[in-house]
Design a protein that fits this description.
Largest sheet: none
Helix content: over 70%
Strand content: under 5%
Order of helices and strands: HHHHHHHH
Oligomer: single chain
Number of helices: 8
Structural class: mainly alpha
Shape: globular
């Protein structure tokens, strides 16, 4: 029951677009969520994703947390056979992907490869179907002379069977 009151507080804060307050409530509920039922977990991950998405507008470090929360939400709802929160989260996720991909592509075009590799990888992390962004991130890492990161990204591409061929 403790996490439910925290989640209610987070939900109210999100409606007011007070993402810092929502984040505080999410942090309090986080240690308790592992023992919750799947329905509660789905709502928690939805609220967590919305909070991180809101916070990412002012601080890019929240993109990674948002990606994790979205992926956790999709995983829990897939396991449950539900799409209630997934449908609610998709518009915000799509906006986040569009904004971040635009930012990453601009960084790449401006030859700021260090920023581009991180931003483009985050786009891939937000939408694992868009493997082309992982290729762009790998290329940016290579051009940034971060060969370890480039190798890591190219290895992931190889493991998922990416060829670069489009229809």
């Amino acid at each position: 029951f403790a996490q439910k009151s925290e989640m209610k507080a987070a939900e109210k804060a999100i409606k007011k677009q007070d993402y810092l307050t929502a984040q505080a409530s999410i942090k309090q509920a986080m240690p308790l969520i592992e023992n919750a039922d799947d329905k509660t977990k789905a709502k928690f991950y939805y609220l967590h994703a919305m909070t991180c998405s809101g916070l990412s507008k002012t601080d890019a470090k929240y993109y990674s947390s948002a990606a994790t929360a979205y992926n956790n939400l999709f995983e829990v709802e897939k396991k449950m056979g539900s799409t209630k929160y997934t449908k609610l989260a998709e518009p915000t996720l799509n906006t986040l992907i569009t904004d971040l991909s635009t930012k990453g592509i601009k960084s790449y075009q401006d030859k700021n490869y260090s920023a581009a590799k991180a931003e483009l990888y985050e786009v891939y992390d937000l939408s694992r179907k868009d493997t082309v962004f992982l290729e762009y991130a790998a290329n940016a890492a290579y051009l940034d002379k971060d060969f370890d990161k480039a190798l890591e990204y190219f290895t992931i591409l190889k493991e998922v069977g990416y060829t670069g061929i489009e229809t």
